[in-house]
From TrEMBL:
Single GO MF descriptor: xanthine dehydrogenase activity
Keywords on record: Molybdenum, Oxidoreductase
Organism whose genome encodes this protein: Lacrimispora celerecrescens
Protein name: Aldehyde oxidase/xanthine dehydrogenase a/b hammerhead domain-containing protein
SUPFAM superfamilies: CO dehydrogenase molybdoprotein N-domain-like (SSF54665), Molybdenum cofactor-binding domain (SSF56003)
Amino acid sequence: MGIKSNVIRLDAVEKVTGAAKYTEDLIPANALVGKTLHSTIANGEVVAIDIEEALKVPGVVDIVTCFDVPNHKYATCGHPFSLDPSHADVKNKTILTSRVRYYGDEIAAVVAEDHLAAQKALEKIKVEYKVFEPVLTPEAAVESGNDLHSLSPRNELARMDFQITPDGKVDFYKGEFSTDPHIGGHKDLKGTKFYVPPQQHCHIENICCFAYISDRKIVIVTPNQATHTLRRNVAEAVGLPIGNIRIVKPYMGGGFGNKQDTYYEPLAAFLTMRLGGRCISFTMSREETFVNSRTRHAMDLWSAVSVNDKGRITKKGLRINSYSGAYGSNGHAITAYAVTNYFQLYPALEKQVGESATVYTTMPSAAAMRGYGIPQVDFAMECQMDDIAMEHGWDPVEFRRKNMMEKGFLDPFDRFHCASNGLEECLDKGCEMIDWKERRKAYDEFNKKSAGIKKGVGMALFAYKTGVYPIQLETASCRILLNEDGSVQVQVSATELGQGSDTVFAQMVSEVTTIPEDKVFVIGKQDTDTSPHDAGAYASRQTYVSGSAVKQTAEILRQKILNRAALLYNEDEEKLNLTYEHVVAADGTVLGSIADVALKIQYINDIKIDSEHITAESTYTMRNNAFSFGASFVDLEVDVSIGKIKINRVVAVHDSGTILNPQLASAQVHGGVAMGLGYALSEQMLFDGKTGKMLNDNLLDYKIPTSMDIPPIEVAFIETYEPTGPFGNKALGEPPLIPQAPAVRNAVLHATGVGINSLPLTSDHLIRAFSKAGLIE
């Protein structure tokens, strides 16, 4: 069938029948149980830890504290390793810590024969602290006088400030942390403030791992999105060569970027070394996953836009103060990604100024989450576009049409041209599907007569880059082995975490070799000892970057098959072709099947021809990037008196280049829209301002949408051809989430005339805004 077909997911049957084995399913029965002791303060130092009573608990095997572990600092992020120090990840995490940086920080660990013994021991450990005040905002952190990390004075992890000249050059300068609405001190760039909260990934499978020693190696089984990077991080943490560490990734129950990071794997590795190679398992509870894994970055954003009387944007300015949380993880990369995106989707004619800072706060660490900073900046950017359109009496769609990026646009930061752009077609298709002009007009008339219920239609656009080139290396490898029955085994380290990448890889191999997908076996369980290198699952890069490696390797395999067939059948290799699993001569004569070639060449006993097991392996280095685009349209109604939003319909239109599997692509959009609606309407992590403790670290109090909350979602694709993608394809995994929050907010603006500049749009939030606007008493 190949590409552009609705091939059923390779893992569908195993997952729906329960046969799929996840990490917790594979923990050996005799494994010891590890549990961590979490700090009960948000900011301070551990002065002493008393474990005497805890050691007396029956079943306790070992207890280690922050004073017992190696002091090797390591990076936790799943980025590819960089030889350039300016692009290397921040190394400021240790296995356990005596310097507490958030409520729940890991300061000790218990190993016991079962969960109950481990928990009882934790409760008997006594800790003495030196306590400092929590700092929950960048402003408080900068002004606190108490640095969370010694190499980051005033708690500023990093910053990036620049001006873009009219000729498209970027001039960087060193700004200072500020909450002044005037961007860069420019009086003509006074920004409107927006705020977006931290968000948790809420994947079904909690964070977990287990480790043991076998064949002189520490083996760690873990659902991680970037296995080769994790191997390096663990090696640095425990002070061993990389070759001494083996990472095995089984099925993964979702990740959304959270499982790109390093968690308890270094601790498990250290403890198995300490205990003679015995198997140690760690499984976070849901509460621990909320606090001790990663979150989306909260951000304060000030956005300034000037327009001329023709509706063209003349000046733009943006400041972002980003909440990093306790540790560095992705460093400043997410904030930098956000601030640069602001000047890509809608480039200004004249002045463009960007300032951004990432600041440590005493909150759970922020890192990669679906959209990688673009949902945050898109909220500010798209909300302001509607505000400007309303102020001038312009149609929001037409205002965007005059200013949005066009094909051929040169990204001033990464210096690549936009080679495919279906954004205008996305706008047109979305307007058609939602009946934009007529519905806006009808709702305007309805709202004049209705005081309690208001109706609105809103929309938002986005642009999203595929992969991280040229800021970091984009590379992937693939290995394909041809079996003597004509089937193939495909080995990759591009991790399948639910997005369907393994299925699409099988389609790619089938497209090139003509071997049907049911004979293409993609090895979806990665093992760093046997799986070829790949940077991992992030940045919606897999079908773009890893897919390029798969296609390239399949082409090598195809050529090898034709070459060996030419030897076997005494034909001219240049005149042979593959069709429907068979080798065909120039005149259309079928010479034999791929299985025939594989079998005969592997077992041939001919003095003139060497036997061979046909395999192919290659590494693809991506030296391009591509923008994906899309538009979301939301039809909703608002019960003003109780601040309740009811979404009637969402229309999502995407340009992701060539769609390789329409059914999987549509499913990606449905999932992304649902996640984006949660970000818009209900999801927020709440913290006690005095203690820094998270208040809603469970799925009862942290509100994610259920199946009952998801409105009808209509999906359409504008298929362009992206010349840098392996089959004309580009990013789709993350983009569907990006425009949902501003589209909802802009629909509320249309319905009520009230523009709300912070998320989520909960009832209490809406009622305060409506009361302030005079809509309710």
